[in-house]
């Protein structure tokens, strides 16, 4: 892959995405960003989405706010960076919407895929890194921090999301790289770097 790459890190809450997004982005001298919240507008949307007081939020409202964030993110951050010749490394992407809202909120993926692709102008991530961590390990990690609206959901919600990510990977395996997130942090970092650099050299 000789052109600038759009790389996304995915996984359940507490898997280490944010840490490894930063580390990989620094290693590649890439634009480091996140969804939701990679723009000023996105930051405001993220605050609404994550606020644990917003218990009345309809699941379709949630999905559409995610799509709005994604449209602004592509227009303001991702597309311009790629056009400048820079790699982009993002903490979450369209696949979080498909897994969280499609499977977790049980909205299905058909409409969400159409809305998200429209928001992205059909520009999907070139590489998706999935940091795989068992839910019992994630629960231990989440117990150590203040929880947002998503992190407060129950085990069934996250089981559906994990199943969603599994099915998304199986449907498009060439796009995905699976990383064992139970390894020590530095080993996870090294594995990500090795596999991403190998993919970029193709």
From TrEMBL:
The keyword Transferase applies. GO terms for molecular function: ATP binding; dTMP kinase activity. The keyword Ribosomal protein does not apply. InterPro entries: P-loop_NTPase (IPR027417), Thymidylate_kin-like_dom (IPR039430), Thymidylate_kin_CS (IPR018095), Thymidylate_kinase (IPR018094). Residues 9-192 form the Thymidylate kinase-like domain. It holds the Pfam family Thymidylate_kin. It is an enzyme of class 2 (transferase). It catalyses: dTMP + ATP = dTDP + ADP. Keywords: ATP-binding, Kinase, Nucleotide biosynthesis, Nucleotide-binding, Transferase. GO terms for cellular component: cytosol. Its EC number is 2.7.4.9. GO terms for biological process: dTDP biosynthetic process; dTTP biosynthetic process; dUDP biosynthetic process. Belongs to the thymidylate kinase family. This is dTMP kinase. It comes from freshwater metagenome.
């Amino acid at each position: 892959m000789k052109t600038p790459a759009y790389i996304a890190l995915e996984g359940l809450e507490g898997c280490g995405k944010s840490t490894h997004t930063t580390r990989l982005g620094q290693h590649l001298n890439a634009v480091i960003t996140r969804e939701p919240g990679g723009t000023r507008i996105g930051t405001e949307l993220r605050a609404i989405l994550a606020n644990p007081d917003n218990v009345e939020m309809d699941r379709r409202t949630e999905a559409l706010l995610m799509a709005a964030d994604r449209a602004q993110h592509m227009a303001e951050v991702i597309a311009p960076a790629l056009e400048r010749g820079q790699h982009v490394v993002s903490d979450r992407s369209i696949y979080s919407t498909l897994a969280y809202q499609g499977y977790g909120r049980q909205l299905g993926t058909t409409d969400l895929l159409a809305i998200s692709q429209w928001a992205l102008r059909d520009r999907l991530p070139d590489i998706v890194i999935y940091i795989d961590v068992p839910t019992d390990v994630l629960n231990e990690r989440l117990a150590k921090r203040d929880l947002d609206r998503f992190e407060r959901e129950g085990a069934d919600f996250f089981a559906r999301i994990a199943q969603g990510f599994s099915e998304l990977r199986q449907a498009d395996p060439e796009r995905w790289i699976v990383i064992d997130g139970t390894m020590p942090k530095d080993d996870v970092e090294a594995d990500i770097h090795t596999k991403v650099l190998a993919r970029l050299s193709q």
